[in-house]
Amino acid sequence: MEAEYPMDMIQTEKLVYEYEKRDEEGNIIGMSRAVDEVDVNIKEGQFIAILGHNGSGKSTFAKHINAILTPTEGSMWVDGRNTKEPEELWNVRKSAGMVFQNPDNQIIGTVVEEDVGFGPENLGVPTDEIWHRVEESLKAVGMISYRHHSPNKLSGGQKQRVAIAGVVAMEPKCIVLDEPTAMLDPVGRREVLRTVESLRKKKKVTVILITHYMEEVIDADKIYVMDHGHVVMEGTPREIFSRVEELKKFRLDVPQVTILSDELRRQGIHIPAGILRKEELVECLCQLS
Amino acid sequence: MSIKLEHLDYIYSPGTAYEKHALKDICLEIAHGEFVGIIGHTGSGKSTLIQHLNGLIRASGGKLYYNGEDIYKEGYDMKMLRSRVGLVFQYPEHQLFEADVMSDVCFGPKNQGLPSEECKVRALEALRLVGLKEKYYSSSPFELSGGQKRRAAIAGVLAMRPEVLVLDEPTAGLDPKGRDDILEQIAFLHRQSDMTVILVSHSMEDIARYTDRIVVMNCGEILYNAAPKQVFAHYRELEQVGLAAPQVTYIMHDLKERGFLVNTDVTTVEEAAGEIIKALETRR
């Protein structure tokens, strides 16, 4: 039944976030709108991607999801709770966990399992239950064999998986990842994405991924494109990546295979727009000849 | 005019529990005017390697020659080396510190002991080279966007008019347009002047597009040192060491498997399109 009528995980109504611009002496010289009347509706279990250039407001928006920031105007509900209500703060943070760009800024423990246990401990989870969760979440990200290691000896991709395990251990319904692969090498990037995918499939966690790598979002249920604090495009990856010119206007790009397909089409080869995977292109070309 | 590394070794914290052999027997020559890419997984030794090039790290063993001169010999002018070999670190914008962009870019030449008029001339030249608009010259670095800050930081190194420009992941964290803009600007600089450029990156697509030669690092050693086409032909081996080939290279391999007569040593979209069209014509 639930699958047919998924619950709203995140909902916003004309969400606005403004901050004060100050001069060197600290006097307020004006207001700046980082997020401007954003309406989104994200269902439980969905995989959502947010794209946008540097300064488009996507990270500011993301920080609302676990109430690091609260709206200046409008509202946001996470799992039905209004993030503006101070008494809901802990519940909101229990529902939505965040993973940031730099793994080195997120790891505090001197031993991997200790780091992962920090979150649930802070939530007041009983000790036996903490150990259980630590084990489960390290297994979920494929890092269980490193449980007794020191985090600073790990690769970037491994550290980022430990950071994800730390969030998973708090058993959130929703995980927000803000450019989690920006600092990683190709294999580290793949490790993190596979981990996220398995969380999505096995634990049915709602995932919100912010990234500058277009290839990472081709499996998303929906993509939101932000520009100047607004949502300017919204649709499936195929819909979004068919609109190459528009994306370029917003300083974005499309996956390399999509560029290649477009180039071929321009040169008179009959292949459809919005090709996202290399397998699709290869299949199309085989059909042609 | 070149950089030459002979059997270079580097060991971090020797004699302690943290001892790590970060570079092992590195032999490498980079000729004047080349555009060289360095790739390798996190911790493979790329950043350690490039910090040797301007003498920030002193090798534990082996020799490093700059323009034929041994930089480790007694009395070698390290200060001069540092202005000849400009190093742009990861996230260089974190190192902006002056009140306005202009002063920040002037800092390098000022430190070289140049008169302030000359510093300004060089700063203006550098700011134009990175394509930062004039209206930002008097802004505080904090008012700039991520991409603009990065340009200002690169200008700070260019203002010293280096002969060699070394960039450690200059596009990390930038949006696609910012990424392309910065790389296009660097490629333009390279074409226009005779500057040697050394680019460290995790983006195989960018490395394939811009460099003449790729050095692949793995566990402190050089695994490959060849033209992009030759290096990416080893895509399976690259995957074993945390890397990959550009997406188009994989497409060509798949097409070949399905009976298309395509060259698999393709590394850019343009080449791939050309190959596919040729193959489709012969199939018909």
Quick overview:
Chain A is an alpha/beta fold and 289 residues long. Chain A contains 10 helices and 11 strands. The longest helix of chain A is centred in the C-terminal third of the chain and has 18 residues, at 186-203.
Tags for this model:
heterodimer; A: 289 residues; alpha/beta; Rossmann fold; 2 domains; 6-stranded mixed beta sheet; 36% helix; globular; B: 284 residues; 4-stranded antiparallel beta sheet; 10 strands; 40% helix
Task: Give a verbal description of the structure.
The complex is a heterodimer of chains A (289) and B (284). Chain A has a six-stranded mixed β-sheet, sandwiched between helices. In chain A, strands 1, 2, 3, 5 and 6 form a five-stranded antiparallel β-sheet that branches. Helices cover 36% and strands 24% of the residues of chain A. The longest helix of chain A has 18 residues, at 186-203. Chain A has 289 residues and is an alpha/beta fold. Chain B has 284 residues and is α/β, with parallel strands linked by helices. In chain B, the strands form two sheets. Chain B has a six-stranded mixed β-sheet, with helices on both faces. In chain B, strands 2-1-4-5 form a four-stranded antiparallel β-sheet, with helices on one face. Chain B starts with a strand and ends with a helix. At the A-B interface, helix 6, helix 9 and helix 10 of A face helix 6, helix 10 and helix 11 of B.
Radius of gyration of chain B: 21 Å
**Terminal residue distance of chain B:** 52 Å
How far the N terminus sits from the C terminus of chain A, by CA atoms, comes to: 46 Å
What is the beta-strand fraction of chain A? 15-25%
Portion of residues in beta strands of chain B equals 15-25%
At the third CATH level, what is the topology name of the largest domain in chain A? Rossmann fold
Shape of chain B: globular
Structural class of the helix and strand makeup of chain A? alpha/beta
Parts with pLDDT < 50 across at least 5 consecutive residues of chain A: none
CATH H level, superfamily name of the largest domain in chain A: P-loop containing nucleotide triphosphate hydrolases
* Helical coverage of chain A, percent range: 25-40%
Per the principal axes of the C-alpha atoms, what is the gross shape of chain A?
Answer: globular
Which stretches of chain B are poorly predicted, pLDDT < 50 over at least 5 residues? none
Largest interface: A-B, 43 and 43 residues
Q: State the helix count of chain B.
A: 11
- The residue-averaged pLDDT of chain B reads 92
Q: Biggest sheet of chain B, open or closed, and with what strands and sense?
A: 6 strands, mixed
Q: What is the spatial order of strands in the main beta sheet of chain B? A: 6-7-8-3-9-10
Number of strand segments of chain B: 10
Order of strands side by side in the largest beta sheet of chain A? Answer: 7-8-9-4-10-11
Number of domain modules of chain A: 2
